[in-house]
Amino acid sequence: MGLDDDSREYHRQDPPGKIEIATTKPTNTQRDLSLAYSPGVAAPCLDIADDEDAAYEYTAKGNLVGVVSNGSAVLGLGNIGAQASKPVMEGKGVLFKRFADIDVFDIELDIADVDDFVAATKAMEPTFGGINLEDIKAPECFEIERQLREQMDIPVFHDDQHGTAIISGAALLNAADVAGKDLDDLDIVFSGAGASALATARFYVSLGAKKENITMCDSSGIITESRVEAGDVNKYKAEFAQPVDEGSLSDAIEGADVFAGLSVGGIVSQEMVQSMADDPIIFAMANPDPEITYEDAKDAREDTVIMATGRSDYPNQVNNVLGFPFIFRGALDVRATEINEAMKRAAAEALAELARQDVPDAVVKAYGDHPLQFGPDYVIPKPLDPRVLFEVAPAVAQAAMTSGAARERLDMNEYRERLEARLGKSREMMRVVLNKAKSNPKRVALAEGEDEKMIRAAYQMQEEGIAEPILVGKTATILRKAEELGLDFDPTIANPRDGEWDHYVDRLYELRQRKGVTESESEELVRRDSNYFASVMVEVGDADAMLTGLTHHYPSALRPPLQIIGTADDANYAAGVYMMTFKNRVVFCADTTVNLDPDEEILAEITKHTADLARQFNVEPRAALLSYSNFGSVTNEGTRKPRDAATLLQDDPDVDFPVDGEMQADTALVEDILEGTYDFAELDEPANLLVFPNLEAGNIGYKLLQRLGGAEAIGPMLVGMDKPVHVLQRGDEVKDIVNLAATAVVDAQEE
């Protein structure tokens, strides 16, 4: 099947459409229903009757946007009517939810008259926290938005006008910088004079471009003052009429610095591109076919052509999803009365700044592993970059507060943490550790310091104040790669092959001379094996923690720190722990990486160390020793081990957390089973710390939770070591390295 048939099947699958209503409160008992509806619902209703602002406290209004359209100008389809536009409006709701966790009701109004449309939308103000106008034809859309902004006390935003303006405005800020040109000197030509083009031109002026430097063309050619006088253009287009001779788009584009296309495909030739100024900026944003293809624009000249389109299969996609979800997120969270010019500028500037930062590995993978680095082919972030939420929404919220549009004031640090929590429990949990790490950064030795991911991670640690990274490796190699990556920082480097490291050799020999290691072998290990070098560095106190494993198999990466640093005084064994985060739940899984077949004493020790780890994340541990048996229902050597481990822990006066076992996994995790069938259990709530009976079960268990249970796995975190050491998994991303470095810093703080 082709794309059209695939899409039809996608939409008609049961249930039809793309959205549904979901409850956010329990509805399992009669009491739940009496709270949700009659008679309990009367209490919040009466409170709202006394104070309408209480609706933001008692209802979903503060996170609910109405996507309102009459289907008169659906992108690529034209005036298809209200009913036919519904799949598009549902899709808009999907994007709001996916990217900014904003709920949407799509409203399709079969109304063409401006005043009637305004009245119908205005009447819905009690329902919504904001209104997103969508796919309404010009010039009616201008008047509809103007009237609604004046009449409504909630944000009203016509995305077709302002979305493209904001995203392409961000691209323009960076493109001008890459081209070495000042914004107020740019000669800008527009192809198209509809709602989007006019709003974009106005926004470019708001950013610093000069109105007199903007030439706008419609299907009849350059919009001139003589055409205005002749009554050839409407009052909206007349805003950008220029005192020049009439001419074609080809005449207008000659010598221009910037081409902004919001018209139709294929109307710009290579000869027209060749006539532009040096290092031209070409935003060919017509969809689905741009005014000129990416290849033709690039091939037309030998100097730098900075090219953007509306397509996802080329660099620099001008996609409105980079804007509207996050603009509304910031506006809703401060209960803004409007989305004003300052808020729009703040969004564009935040997007522009984000494009200059190192790009997460997950984003690079999502776009085919092509390098993404600030420059001609990367002047705006990618739509799937999750950092857009954390940059744009706070910028918009801050601008709303500064400009007087906000009715609520936010602490911006707390607000960023709230935004992270919206994207998943893992971000919320890691924020706890990251904040602790920033309070007192420690020195972290990165054993594989020549790896690009390690260098990028070191840059982030240093920039965010999480740690003081030490890159272990060749100085020239690390500096060269940092420069190639565009990272502007001065890394701390420890080069094993160049420096006075004889004391490391002596210490390694002292520790391992009775383990079969000679003095010359100690020299070789320190100078040639970065894992041994980093381990000695931590052991002698020149670093506080160590990370390795990115390019090694787990056992070979773990061996040097185990030999040199060893386990803590109160530990005989190390263990690997994953923190599994679900939407509203966190579970620690141990041991998943180290001990093949632990006995009851090892299981008990692993439990205590994992409980200490959980508390670093501000989680009070409730431990379950897992088996296929429930409290003696099966008795053999395998079930006795977790049962005896639980007894050891219960009898240990130093254990100050609930623990029980042996028990099956569902017994440990399901409250009804614990409280019903096994009400005698020591756990009064479901377990959040699962100790598996052996390595095979642990490794299988955490991967099932991750792949089928939808959990995000953070780790493995190594517990039981004398000093903080974490061994990464091969292929881990930069964020994983930074997360484990933060955990190591918190470990070191407690040391």
Automatic annotation (TrEMBL):
Its EC number is 1.1.1.40. It holds the Pfam family PTA_PTB. SUPFAM superfamilies: Aminoacid dehydrogenase-like, N-terminal domain, Isocitrate/Isopropylmalate dehydrogenase-like, NAD(P)-binding Rossmann-fold domains. GO terms for molecular function: malate dehydrogenase (decarboxylating) (NADP+) activity; metal ion binding. Residues 16-149 form the Malic enzyme N-terminal domain. Residues 1-22 are annotated as: Disordered. The keyword Oxidoreductase applies. Keywords: Metal-binding, Multifunctional enzyme, Oxidoreductase. Coiled coil: none annotated. Residues 8-17 have a biased composition (Basic and acidic residues). Its cofactor is Mn(2+); Mg(2+). Residues 161-401 form the Malic enzyme NAD-binding domain. In the N-terminal section; belongs to the malic enzymes family. This is NADP-dependent malic enzyme. It comes from Haloferax chudinovii.
